[in-house]
Amino acid sequence: MSILDRYGIKEVADVTFYDLDSVGRPTNPVLYLDTLKVSTIEQSAENTSARGGKGNPELIAWDYGKEITVTLEDALFSPKSLAIMFGNGTTTKYESTANTTAFLMKTEKFVATAGATVASATAAGWNSKFTGPNGSVYTKYDAKFYDENGSSVASLTSGKTYFCTYDLKISGSVIEISGNTFPGTYYVTGDTFARSEASGNDEFFQFIIPKAKIEAANTITLQADGDPSVFSMNLRVLRPADGVMMKLVQYSIDDPAAGDGSAFNLYHNHVLVGTGIDPVYPQG
Q1: How far apart are CA 24 and CA 210, in angstroms?
Q2: Is the pTM of this model over 0.90?
Q3: pLDDT tens sequence across 150-189
């Protein structure tokens, strides 16, 4: 590689999050993001200087307090990505089966078209079925009716507005966010391309962050118009035990026949889960 080689980077990165073991090594992948809109890396630092002489110019400068932050904007979300952004990364799956039933409560507003008791609310124009966005129809369970003041009612009057709360049988994932659950710290890699000015060809480029803390401040925007919501994840790079906060790797993939069989594990980013033993090279 020559010092005259120049490259451009434009393409967004595909980013992988790994859990860390007790000594700070990456283990199993917990999140893979390949629908990012933006992935940015920003480095900042404070500085101070010694001044003196006529005009009091700067004579010597010192940098300190280095910070590296990473911002990821995803076009899509998954239960796991939301759990990592807003909680401690844990999701709980609920399913309605032959032995258990999971319910979710919903509320709707309707205007009664006739007088009726709540036991025969369908005669007053209430629909006992829920229609999903795909046209599928589902049963409403345990319906309760309230007037405009939020008081429970036993009968419905034509022309008046009512609220109905009911349950739906569901299967889904639940992310619990409490006052003592915060996003965790992960080993992060991002894969993208760097394009050579000379050849116009893309070459592999990866950033490696051994210890990244996901910041707790996050926003989900729900709006009726405009562009769809993006899901932003802000990472603060921490100092690992060896002091290397980030690695930027530009590389090509060698022919399988290259090398003499000896192992030089430059950027191996995982260990065998549960063993704590690094893989042996070369591998067949």
Answers
A1: 8
A2: no
A3: 999 999 999 999 999 999 988 888 888 888 888 889 999 9
Residues 82 and 15 both lie in one domain: yes
User: What tokens does 270 get?
Assistant: 């995982």
Residue 136 lies in a domain: yes
Closest CA to 14 of 38, 33, 42: 33
Q: Are residues 78 and 149 in the same domain?
A: no
When divided into structural domains, the chain yields a total of 2
- From 174, 204, 234, the end of a domain falls on 174
Task: Give tens-digit pLDDT for 236-284.
Answer: 999 988 888 998 888 877 766 655 555 555 445 444 444 455 544 444 3
Tokens of 253: 């993939």
pLDDT digits over 36-50, tens only? Answer: 988 889 999 999 999
Burial 182-217 (b: 16+ CB within 10 A, else e): ebbebbbbbebbbbeeeeeeeeebbbbbbbbebbee
How many whole angstroms separate alpha carbon 233 and alpha carbon 216?
9
β-sheet bridge partners, residue 69: 42, 236
Q: Are residues 222 and 167 in the same domain?
A: no
Structural domain boundaries enclosing 34: 7-46+64-91+181-251
